[in-house]
Design brief:
Helix content: 10-25%
Low-confidence stretches: 1-36
Mean pLDDT: 86
Number of strands: 16
Distance between the termini: 34 Å
Strand content: 15-25%
Order of helices and strands: EEEEHEHEHHHEEHEEEHEEEEE
Shape: globular
Strand order of the largest sheet: 1-2-3-7-8-12-14-13
Radius of gyration: 19 Å
Number of helices: 7
Largest sheet: 8 strands, mixed
Length: 336
């Protein structure tokens, strides 16, 4: 399977002599399959329209260093399996074990990574390079986003400008301001150009219209119909809905006296009233683990916390897992 990624300059303009970028906002990738006549091959398209015209009232500022593509549209082939893998967080060994267990065939199957390829685990760079080797599709996670923003700033201003460590990187009113001494800096500094291009090319939302399915890292607001109008910070970070029915990264339903719901409950309720509702696969919420509902499928099973790494085959919804023995069993997926 061949998947080429372009760096979209819809949210920021990266200009560095050492990076390979393109101004094109539309990239079509044809994935060669068997030459059997009339067999459909897969394609990945970046639509021209990437700007949000009607952001929600709770929308956060988008970092000028995010280099964000809000939406890509994937058209799968009519052959092979489509696997969605939960948050890897640098756990390369378990990633390879799981790929071996499912007998993944890159020339036939598709692999979609549900974000947070990096951070906390032992080999974040190795995970990115393995994903590139497999031509895996991906969406951007909140930890991936931090690494990208730091690296983009470095490309623009130089590593020597990223000090002192307690200085906040100038980004405007973003949802998660970063200091130059942020823990993601170690990964960012070690990204090569190809790794950066791949990770930055992971869109906020991967839309698969032919399967009536979308993949995101955190979640989607069920009341927003135009995909690019979604608040990027919320798509990468949401868990529960607050008292104002707005997405929050906090686990509000675990606090005494709070009568709130997970975003998937609101989404499922809305889907029940919708003709031909769209299914959403998501990661990010390791404390909930695997949750397979009618229209929402959670795939993060907390590998980096010593639990399991999971894939779910999209068409059959078959779940396959491996144990993660090296993780931090005392970790908390609220940590930044």
């Amino acid at each position: 399977m061949i998947h080429t990624t372009s760096i979209s300059k819809n949210e920021s303009d990266v200009d560095n002599g050492s990076t390979s970028t393109t101004d094109a906002t539309t990239t079509t990738t044809t994935i060669p399959q068997n030459n059997t006549k009339n067999r459909k091959t897969a394609s990945l398209i970046t639509p021209d329209h990437q700007e949000s015209y009607h952001p929600p009232v709770y929308a956060h500022a988008v970092s000028p260093w995010s280099n964000l593509t809000r939406l890509k549209v994937y058209s799968p082939s009519d052959q092979g399996r489509i696997f969605v893998m939960g948050d890897i967080h640098g756990c390369l060994k378990e990633m390879n074990q799981l790929l071996e267990k499912i007998q993944f065939k890159p020339d036939q199957d598709a692999l979609i990574l549900a974000g947070d390829l990096v951070f906390r685990g032992q080999d974040s760079i190795g995970v990115i390079q393995r994903a590139r080797q497999l031509n895996a599709l991906c969406v951007r996670g909140n930890h991936d986003d931090k690494v990208i923003r730091l690296k983009t700033y470095e490309y623009q201003h130089g590593l020597e400008s990223m000090s002192p460590s307690d200085k906040i990187m100038p980004e405007g009113q973003v949802g998660d301001p970063l200091k130059f001494g942020n823990k993601h800096m170690e990964i960012s500094k070690n990204l090569n150009v190809e790794d950066y291009n791949y990770l930055a090319g992971c869109p906020l939302i991967l839309d698969i219209p032919e399967l009536n399915t979308r993949v995101v890292h955190g979640g989607l607001d069920p009341l927003i119909t135009n995909l690019v109008d979604n608040d990027p910070w919320s798509v990468m970070n949401m868990r529960d809905m607050d008292d104002n029915n707005q997405p929050s990264k906090l686990k509000l339903n675990k606090k005494p006296g709070n009568d709130v719901q997970h975003w998937t409950a609101a989404y499922e309720a809305n889907a029940a009233k919708t003709h031909n509702p769209v299914t959403v696969f998501y990661g990010h919420d390791a404390s909930r683990g695997i949750v397979i509902d009618n229209q929402t499928v959670g795939v993060d099973s907390g590998c980096v916390y010593g639990r399991k790494l999971s894939v779910i085959e999209m068409r059959s919804r078959q779940l396959i897992q491996v144990d993660c023995l090296d993780g931090d069993k005392h970790g908390d997926d609220d940590d930044d």
